[in-house]
Design brief:
The complex is a heterodimer. Helix content of chain A is 0%, strand content 49%. Chain A is mainly β. In chain A, the strands form three sheets. In chain A, strands 2, 5, 6, 10, 11 and 12 form a six-stranded mixed beta sheet that branches. Chain A has a four-stranded antiparallel beta sheet with strand order 3-9-8-7, with no helix packed on it. Chain A has a two-stranded antiparallel ribbon with strand order 1-4. The N and C termini of chain A lie far apart (41 Å). In chain B, the strands form two sheets. In chain B, strands 2, 4, 5, 6, 9, 10 and 11 form a seven-stranded mixed beta sheet that branches. In chain B, strands 1-3-8-7 form a four-stranded antiparallel beta sheet, with no helix packed on it. The chains are: A mainly beta, B mainly beta.
Chain lengths: 116, 116
């Protein structure tokens, strides 16, 4: 079945460091891919998305490129801030439109802590 | 625009007690979802409702029931709570996805449930 694997955390970085969180997926068809962020005590918020191969999603300085050849959607940011401390979830939406249309499959999450 | 709201925010139950978690959205979305979040497990889908009048099981439906009361509201019921149901529960909603449109889900703030 479809699945998402993301790097285990926690990840601890100093402010202004470069961030990469790896995400790979297994899916049939052509899924849409997402990164969600969860700040402490809150629900998940969409950070960025890509719906087809070679698309780049970007938001708030974060970027991820949909790589079909490597089945990856790695999250990157050039210079992290303390306010980026959160849990990041990679997710895919299945590309078929049967009974499970719209359902997301999530990775286990990666906790990021940024120190001043 | 409140987005997705959930009540209660916190709840403590004794084993065998029942309760209903409430969820409402004001975005006129067709699809609604219930997830549970456990440490190291990411988010797992309990039940979903692709449109008003329909509900379907997700990955972990045992011990739960749902009701899609109307287009706005989707409740989750625990008939006889067990300690294994201690978790954080999130409700989400999205547009009906009958075509390839990205499928963003909007999440509520969560209900933190402890079963003793």
């Amino acid at each position: 079945g479809n699945s998402v694997t993301q790097m285990e955390g926690p990840v601890t970085l100093s402010e202004e460091a470069f961030l990469t969180i790896n995400c790979t997926y297994t899916a049939t068809g052509y899924p849409s891919l997402f990164w969600y962020v969860q700040y402490p005590g809150e629900g998940l918020q969409l950070l960025l998305k890509a719906t087809k191969a070679d698309d780049k999603g970007s938001n708030k300085g974060f970027e991820a490129t949909y790589r079909k050849e490597t089945t990856s959607f790695h999250l990157e940011k050039g210079s992290v801030q303390v306010s980026d401390s959160a849990v990041y979830f990679c997710a895919l939406r299945e590309g078929n439109y049967g009974g499970s249309q719209g359902n997301l499959i999530f990775g286990k999450g990666t906790k990021l802590s940024v120190k001043p | 625009n409140a987005g997705v709201t959930q009540t209660p925010k916190f709840q403590v139950l004794k084993t065998g007690q029942s309760m209903t978690l409430q969820c409402a959205q004001d975005m006129n979305h067709n699809s609604m979802y219930w997830y549970r979040q456990d440490p190291g497990m990411g988010l797992r889908l309990i039940y979903y409702s692709a449109s008003e009048g329909t509900t379907d099981k997700g990955e972990v439906p045992n011990g739960y029931n749902v009701s899609r009361l109307n287009k706005r509201e989707f409740s989750l019921r625990l008939e006889s709570a067990a300690p294994s149901q201690t978790s954080v529960y999130f409700c989400a909603s999205s547009e009906f996805v009958g075509k390839r449109d990205g499928g963003e889900q909007f999440f509520g703030p969560g209900t933190r449930l402890t079963v003793l």
